[in-house]
Design a protein that fits this description.
heterodimer; A: about 425 residues; Cytochrome Bc1 Complex, Chain A, domain 1; 2 domains; 13 strands; globular; B: alpha+beta; seven-stranded mixed beta sheet; five-stranded mixed beta sheet; 17 strands
Chain lengths: ~425, ~425
């Protein structure tokens, strides 16, 4: 077979399933995602739900029983999946499991795994209809630990802080795990109520990739989700795209922590290009500017000026923002910021060599075609496409990338404006001590 | 090339050893667009003392990693840029045990492979380019200084090892890299980058014969003697000290415990030992082990916990750790579990379950081109074939795993490294 067959259907009211049938992989992948609005009031509760559900079901009531069951399914993995896609929070589970072709007596593993996914989602271990307080408290503690642990990785912390500071009045500012305050306030009764409402009101995206034919996979998932309550579905989910900057001049923010290296994060609005976004051109624009080792940021900020080890840009095409991140010496702040601005201006002015454009395009095409060789990457790609209402796969997007011209890149960059600059730095005292 | 079939896992391996001593491994994958290739030298950050033409050399900490950065320089330009311009996704990494140069591509594989082989076998270092790199690597080192996982790991290595260069950061320090000159890089390249000290591994839609042909055409046909390495005096099984603690900007304490396994063996024995350790640790502290689940439930461990048996610089060692509100409590509980299991043996039902799960885990790993390629090199340097792993796994029994725990996880030999939040410092 070897080829990939992709099918997307509505298999139950508001439940959409994407099936990729292929015998390329030795493992199958199944994910079920409830879609809900990302908001400050509910993000932590939503993030908590799959972890609490994962603790145990009616038939496998605790972690030990869950573990034994997964081990006996040849080490199948079933993990909570909580993701932020634009201003939508995707909450659910992903599972991966050995494909039956490689099992001595593995008939029906897909059905067994699907049933378990349905069970954790719909038949959690409850008492009197309420989620167990012990499970809720235990997972709440862990969520709080995760929220607080954001500061541990200074690079992702800088990205998180920039997002929060740049978009104060937008849902986009909300972290996928929510806030400490909200998490602390969660109780098991309110969480149970929230869980039931989330089940009833959320559109659902299901993804399957493996050897089973789509009809069989659909049957397995429909059986597993048979008792999913369907109330009034929130079908206007989406992401607000802000075209202009919050203030005329970029806002500048600084945090002081005890660190040796400064982290510079620069946030931009993509502007007019988001009115009718040319996804391929925007991706190429980002690749030319700061997407890899042939990019302007790498070539200049790192290779020419030796200011840093990394300087990357990334675009979120759902929200229409771009972010640059780099680790630098505190004293090099002005020079690095000026150089980043200069390189963006060069992209806007079309000062892009044929080599730069070519390297950006072939690099992106390589990434997209490689993504088609990984079940995990395909899952993430299709979830994004489905949320954007786009129907083309990675191969087709690669073909679009190939056709992007320098003019397309200039057009994609034309409206980009810097909205905020964030700098994480050590304290002055520490610097003096070093001198 | 020799063809070896593994029907039970649906893989085929093509392998040969070239006259210059280079082992070549190709695992073709049908139906994929991408191919992965890595050219790996059995030379890592820990290989700092060696003999060159009968003369003992001692090189600065961080030299293997510095060499990795400068390897991409070619007289005609930068090889990384050339590979990227051809659409490949290329990179390199240095660990304590090895330096690997690799790329993934979806077209022009043969051409990219030739670029890879050519640049890794072409030393070209100028004073200017070596000096310029110092700023970039300096920033990389500063980044690790702020990384709590890196700091807790280095803390543990310094507790465990008295002399072995595993004590030093892979990238060295801002001070140690000041002493790195083009000549040092040329010396290291000459000793360690000969094909007989390397391995070429390819996974993907590639023609095995073409891979071999490229290596034959580009690399030197001469063979060379194996480099002599010196990791310092023998290490005892006891740690140097048992506890290290430092304060950093972290939200919760991070801990890493560990102990030494003694000199690492080589050959098929090494594979059996590593798989036994892997299975035994799964039973003891794996994600579905009773101990992990109990400590998770008690709130002493969370999802950041991990454990593994690692091998580098002639040594084996076990590490285990993650975040914990009570690192000492977690550490004690983990060691107590090993003691109890050592006495009573591993529960046979648990072992059978774990073995079934281990089968799934090994099969899953075959889909990760990069880790399969790097594993082929690692196995080659240690003298075994990783694709034999699933068969070897079958032969390991519950008693073997229990005996491994009893012999190796001896609480009295363990040490604990902790990174605490700043505020907690008194």
């Amino acid at each position: 077979m070897n080829c990939v067959r992709e099918i997307r259907r509505e298999i139950m009211p508001g439940v959409y399933m994407t099936c990729l049938q292929t015998d390329k992989f030795k493992t199958g992948l199944l994910s079920v995602n409830l879609l809900t609005r990302l908001s400050r009031e509910t993000a932590a509760k939503n993030a908590l739900i799959p972890s609490v559900l994962r603790r145990g079901t009616v038939s496998s009531p605790d972690l030990n029983a869950m573990a034994a069951r997964l081990d006996s399914l040849y080490g199948a993995r079933l993990e909570p999946a909580v993701r932020k896609k634009g201003e939508i929070q995707c909450v659910g589970f992903w599972a991966d499991f050995v494909d039956e072709a490689w099992l001595p007596q593995g008939e029906g593993l897909l059905e067994k795994v699907a049933a378990l996914v349905g069970e954790v989602l719909l038949q959690p271990n409850t008492r009197g209809g309420l989620l167990l307080p012990g499970y809720v408290d235990g997972e709440k503690e862990k969520l709080l630990e995760d929220i607080r642990a954001r500061v541990n990785d200074k690079i992702s912390y800088s990205r998180y802080r920039l997002t929060e500071l740049m978009c104060p009045a937008e849902d986009y500012a909300v972290d996928v795990l929510g806030t400490e305050e909200e998490a602390e306030a969660v109780g098991y009764v309110a969480l149970t109520r929230h869980y039931r409402a989330l089940l009833a009101s959320s559109p659902v995206e299901v993804f399957y990739c493996g050897t089973a034919d789509p009809d069989r996979a659909e049957r397995a998932v429909r059986d597993a989700l048979a008792t999913l309550p369907r109330g009034e579905l929130d079908m206007d989910l989406g992401t607000d795209i802000r075209m202009n900057t919050v203030e005329e001049a970029p806002r500048v923010f600084t945090d002081v922590l005890d660190v040796t290296q400064g982290k510079l994060a620069v946030g931009y609005r993509l502007g007019a290009a988001m009115e009718d976004p040319d996804m391929a051109a925007l991706r190429v624009m980002n690749a030319v500017f700061g997407g890899g080792v042939s990019s302007k940021l790498f070539m200049n900020v790192r290779e020419k000026l030796s200011l840093c080890y990394f300087a990357d840009s990334a675009v979120d095409l759902m929200k229409g923002v771009m972010m640059v991140l780099s680790g630098i010496e505190v004293k090099d702040y002005d020079q690095a910021l000026a150089e980043i601005g200069r390189q963006l201006q060069a992209v806007k002015d079309g000062l892009i060599t044929d080599e730069e454009l070519h390297a950006a395009k072939v690099g992106l095409m390589n990434d997209l075609l490689s993504a088609a060789d990984s079940a995990g990457a395909l899952e993430s790609f299709w979830l994004g496409q489905n949320l954007l209402g786009l129907e083309y796969g990675p191969e087709e997007l690669a073909a679009l990338v190939e056709d992007v011209t320098r003019d397309d890149v200039v057009k994609a960059a034309a409206g980009i404006e810097c909205d905020a600059v964030y700098f994480l730095r050590g304290s002055e005292e520490d610097e003096d001590a070093e001198d | 090339m020799q063809r070896i079939d593994y029907p039970a896992i649906g893989e085929t391996l093509y392998t040969s050893k070239l006259p210059n001593g280079l082992p070549v491994f190709v695992v073709p994958k049908k139906g994929y667009r991408k191919s992965f290739a890595c050219y790996v030298t059995n030379y890592g950050a820990a290989d700092r003392r060696f003999t060159l033409a009968g003369e003992a050399k001692d090189t600065p900490a961080g030299v293997a990693h510095y060499l990795e950065h400068k390897m991409f320089d070619m007289p005609e330009g930068n090889a990384l840029m050339a590979l990227e311009a051809a659409g490949a996704n290329a990179n390199a990494f240095t660990s304590d045990a090895m330096t690997a140069y690799h790329f993934t591509c979806t077209q022009n594989f043969d051409e990219d492979l030739r670029t890879l082989l050519r640049f890794v076998s072409t030393p070209y270092y100028t004073q200017e380019s070596v000096d310029k790199e110092r700023g970039i690597i300096g920033q990389e080192i500063r980044m690790y200084e702020d990384d709590p996982d890196d700091q807790v790991y280095m803390g543990l290595m310094r507790l465990l090892f008295a002399h072995n260069p595993l004590r030093d950061d892979v990238a060295g320090t801002v001070e140690s890299i000041q002493d790195i000159t083009p000549q040092v890089l040329y010396d290291c390249h000459r000793v360690f980058y000969h094909p007989s000290n390397m391995a070429l591994c390819v996974v993907g839609e590639a023609d095995p014969e073409a891979v071999e042909r490229a290596a034959l055409e580009i690399l030197t046909p001469e063979s060379a003697p194996r480099p002599g390495r010196d990791y310092g005096p023998a290490e005892s099984l006891e740690p140097v000290r048992t506890r290290d603690e430092r304060a950093m900007e972290v939200s919760a304490p991070i801990f890493l415990g560990g102990l030494k396994l003694g000199p690492a063996s080589t050959g098929p024995e090494a594979q059996r030992e590593r798989l036994t350790a892997w299975l035994a640790l799964r039973c003891l502290y794996g994600r579905s082990s009773p101990a992990y689940l109990r400590l998770y439930d008690e709130g002493l461990l969370n999802g950041t916990f991990g454990c593994s048996a690692d091998y580098a610089a002639g040594q084996g060692f076990v590490i285990f750790g993650g975040e914990s509100r009570d690192p000492d409590g977690a550490y004690e509980a983990i060691l107590a579990e090993a003691e109890a299991v050592g006495k009573a043996g591993i529960d046979p039902a648990l072992f059978d379950r774990q073995k079934k799960a281990a089968y799934g885990s090994q099969l899953r790993a075959l889909g990760d081109f990069r880790s399969l390629g790097v594993n082929l090199a690692e196995g080659c340097f240690a003298g075994y074939q990783p694709l034999d792993g699933l068969r070897e796994l079958e032969a390991i029994g519950c008693d073997d795993a229990s005996a491994w725990v009893r012999e190796h996880i001896v609480p009295g030999r363990a040490a604990l490294s902790v990174v605490r939040p700043k505020e907690a410092k008194t």
